[in-house]
Write a structure and sequence with these properties.
seven-stranded parallel sheet; 4-phosphoerythronate dehydrogenase activity; single chain; alpha/beta; SDR family oxidoreductase; two-stranded parallel sheet; NAD(P)-dependent_oxidoreduct; NAD(P)-bd_dom_sf
Length: 299
């Protein structure tokens, strides 16, 4: 995704869809290089987006009639919007690509859940996709829709597969305070992480440096099992470590959604973001980030 040029009217235009926490972290990195438009379905957020340096646009990916004004608006699109929580398809992504012009540059934020359970194996981006739940199947569908669109419309697509996002205000503190149990070591799963600030920086690198139709693991260097992650956060915030239960007992006391996260184990290689995108992680692992939070008085 090289050779992004100034338009004849000044800065190149960039459109963000799904401008939540990560999108807000993106804006300071982008607003000096681009004229940034941020889509929201909530008119009440327009003032917040404008104050952060974006031009807010009210539109709804679930309402195709509201999207026409986005067509040909920007040369670059960052697609952070999650699929709707129903169906096996991502209709939102279908609605989006229906209005995008040829030769658009698009960075899509997907999930590492598309791999399903890998039994703790260390995997790279060539691992076959085997989604085990509706959330992951919708992401696979979105990736497939975008690949087809990119090939058909000569567009430039990069897919970032993202694991668990964390930051000082995105930690499992309430879960720890409630004493929600974790798995015993022999039943536990490997989990993967990325700090929200590093994810924003990876997205910017992908805009400028990603190869077309390339997939990247937007993950840090951590190698932690899930209970180890909870223990590290608990120690940083002086909270009790969660109790441990065997899987057969734990599945009786946690929600099906939480259990689904505790049923997939994988470790991610992240060489591509370093060698191809030139990313240097500010927070190489969870413990490094927690130490920084302690130093900053956030713990």
């Amino acid at each position: 995704m090289k050779n992004i040029k100034q338009s004849s009217f000044g800065k190149p235009r960039l459109l963000i869809l799904g401008c939540g926490d990560v999108g807000m972290r993106l804006l300071p990195l982008l607003r000096h290089r681009f004229r940034v438009f941020a889509v929201t379905s909530q008119p009440a957020r327009c003032a917040e987006l404008r104050a952060a340096g974006a031009i807010p646009l009210v539109a709804d990916l679930d309402q195709p009639a509201t999207l026409a004004r986005l067509s040909c608006l920007a040369q670059i699109v960052v697609h952070l919007a999650p699929p709707h929580s129903v169906s096996e398809k991502d209709q939102r992504t279908r609605n989006l690509v229906a209005i995008l012009p040829e030769r658009t540059t698009l960075v899509y934020i997907s999930t590492t859940g598309v791999y399903g359970d890998c039994g703790g194996a260390l995997i790279d981006e060539t691992r076959p996709l085997m989604p085990h739940n509706g959330r992951a199947r919708r992401r696979v569908d979105a990736e497939q829709v975008l690949r087809h669109w990119a090939r058909r419309r000569s567009a430039r697509l990069a897919i970032l597969r993202v694991p668990g996002i964390y930051a000082a205000d995105r930690l499992p503190l309430e879960r720890l305070r409630k004493g929600t149990p974790a798995l015993i070591a022999e039943d536990d799963v490997y989990t993967n992480h990325i700090h929200a600030d590093d994810l924003a920086r990876i997205i910017v690198a992908a805009i400028f440096k990603a190869s077309p139709l390339r997939v990247y693991h937007a993950a840090d260097d951590s190698t932690l099992k899930m209970a180890e992650y909870f223990d590290a956060v608990a120690a940083a915030f002086a909270l009790p470590c969660p109790p441990r239960l065997p899987r057969a007992e734990l599945q009786k006391v946690v929600s099906p959604m939480l259990l689904s996260f505790m049923s997939e184990s994988r470790r991610l290689q992240n060489r591509r973001i370093k060698s191809e995108l030139g990313v240097q992680l500010k927070y190489p692992d969870v413990q490094n980030a927690l130490s920084a939070m302690i130093a900053d008085g956030k713990c």
